[in-house]
Prior knowledge:
By secondary structure, this protein is an alpha+beta fold. It has helices at 14-29, 41-48, 57-74, 89-101, 106-118, 127-136, 141-148, 151-166, 188-195; strands at 3-9, 32-38, 174-177, 180-183. The chain contains 9 helices and 4 strands, in the order E-H-E-H-H-H-H-H-H-H-E-E-H.
Amino acid sequence: MSKTVEFYFDLGSPATYLAYTQLPKICEQTDSQLLYIPILLGGVFKATGNASPATVPAKGHYMFQDLDRFAKRYGVPLKFNPHFPINTLMLMRAVTAMQLRHPERFLAFIDCLFKALWVDGRSLDEPATVGAVLTQNNFDPNEVLALTADEEVKAALKTNTEKAVQRGVFGAPSMFVNNQLFFGQDRLDFVLEALS
């Protein structure tokens, strides 16, 4: 039976972006399956009483220095987004919609949005910017926007988020291997160990 990593993610987290760049390689290396589970980080924070490390100025400053170190180690681009923190409700509904309605384009969709946020530093709080990014990447922004209003899509994101909290998720990225929780992109060595 194939091993699985359940990857609970929200686009608005730079640490999640870094985990996203590394998990496919880890899964390929260990012949494991990567399951992407979109959640709303704001909903997780509200339910658990947690908050972004960026809300503590000294911790936030350190966090971005540390993430930069990891990006260099991984050999991936990372740029601090000047618009951080981003309200990701609409984005994560769009991600959920693509996973449900267009699974064949799901990875290309999240890839272009992660890149827009954490490589290009785009303001994905602004619908016009989101529309431009989607158009540049051959997605129809009107179709995507319409999907974010779909009741089934809204319910799916809400359910994912609630189930994540029930499983003990308090932030992103969170990964499960055999029901064991690993939190943070700096715990990928433990994910690899659990899969090996």
